[in-house]
Amino acid sequence: MRLVVLSSKTGGGHEMRAQAIQEICNDLDIESIILRPLETDSHLYLFGTHLYNWIQRFYPRLHCLYFRWLEYASLHNHANKIIGSREFLRKMNGFYPNLVISVHAHLNHGFLELSKRINKHKPPKFAIYCGELADGIGFSKHWVNSRADLFCGPTKKTIDAAIKRGMPAKKCKVWGALLRSSFYQSKDLIEVNSFCLKYQINPSLPVGILATGANGVNSHKKVLHGLAKTAIGTQIIALCGKSTLLFNQLKDFQGKSKIKVIPLMSINANDMKILLDMSDWVFGRPGAGLTSEVISAGKFMYFDTSKGIMPQEQNNLNFWRSSGHEPVLIKNAAKLSRNLRHMKRGKYPNLLVDRELIVQEIKKLLSY
Predict the structure, then answer these.
(1) What burial class does residue 333 get, using C-beta atoms within 10 Å of its C-beta: 0-12 exposed, 13-18 middle, 19+ buried?
(2) What is the pLDDT of residues 68-105, one digit of tens each?
(3) Predicted local distance difference test score (pLDDT) of residue 358
């Protein structure tokens, strides 16, 4: 059996979910590949990806305009409009999948049509996994295609949003959070101690995490300058992603500050799971990927909205609210310290986390 995951490097959540599916395939001895046609098959689409990521990193509030334009333009809604369709079909015919799972809104229409062409007598099934946690202004109409064999998502609110936009209810299924395999596993004391020793973290002291997105979106320096004026006894783990510049700046800050700051470059899923389990709170953008991981670990999150809120991020805040928990929005990153000192931390919503359910659903899709 062969499975293709359709993904894109717009933000980090899509890639995390694509990796999660591929890990399941590896466990089941299913051949799999990840295709990213928006990055590899067209210079125009690649420019759009870079523009999205640039807006996310520097001017998130401007994404409202870009999002509306993409909703109107419907660039990928028909197979005959897809730039680079020949290259996409060449790759698909070369791999000849039995199942295609899309984890990106703009890969569910024209690319579905193209995918169904590779075997007209027995075309591959096409499933959509939407990572949005709830409905909202950022729930793209492009997620929904009634011609898909299955629409699935992390929550019932995700499914309700799809049905409202025309997805047949009989083709919808709640899969729960689609996370990398490490997030479904408990870590033993030896692993935790090894992790702490590796990064010089004191397991007896409180831990706060400053998260960063796949595109390096963060407010670390503003937060740390605010915290430097306080006397909190918390170890601050600052995730720097791939930015050596930020890492070196924080290492320099580390030597001059009263607070303990531990900057880390990109860490793997296993280390991220251990770090989340150790943490008392997380500060980061309200993206679906990070938010899902934090909730699955049962931790509280402070949401960084200092540069505005992207439409898709609003969906995840809506999930927090609709679950009866008011999210804590930090509009000025330098004032996070004030919230840590004076604000009671609220509770976090519940999220289905069941890898075996997802495994069985993938097996079912492949059993036709």
Answers:
(1) buried
(2) 999 998 989 999 999 999 999 999 999 999 999 999 99
(3) 96
